Amino acid sequence: MPPSHPGRILKKMYMEPLHLTNGVAADNLGITRKTLSMLLNEHQGISAEMALRLSKAFDTTPELWMNMQRNYDLWNAGQKVTLSKIKHFRKVKPLPPETVTREGKRFRSSSEPI
């Protein structure tokens, strides 16, 4: 069963129980009604900025909204991508979790090169 689009969850589990109109919700979130409508009608996903807005408005975490979007996107991608046609590269040593890539360089923190 596919995960629900975050816009559907926003509408059914957050806005409808509070009897929020699109106009009131959009004004409170600091976005246009069109932007909110695109999200609620599943034509647009949750951005990091929107996740921050929603988390503040509904007393949740941004991670909740981003995880919903990630799960939705991954499920949909899995329906489109034929993984059986992709060949494995040789195994490499995985990067430690604290390592991030920035401008082609590896860093342990924002200022400390590896």
UniProtKB/TrEMBL annotation:
- Where does the record locate the signal sequence feature? none
Answer yes or no on keyword DNA-binding. yes
Occurrences of domain HTH cro/C1-type (ranges): 26-65
PROSITE patterns from the UniProt entry:
HTH_CROC1
Keyword list (alphabetical) reads:
DNA-binding
Instruction: Extract the GO molecular function terms from the UniProt entry.
Output: DNA binding
Short name of one Pfam family? HTH_3
The protein's name is: Addiction module HigA family antidote
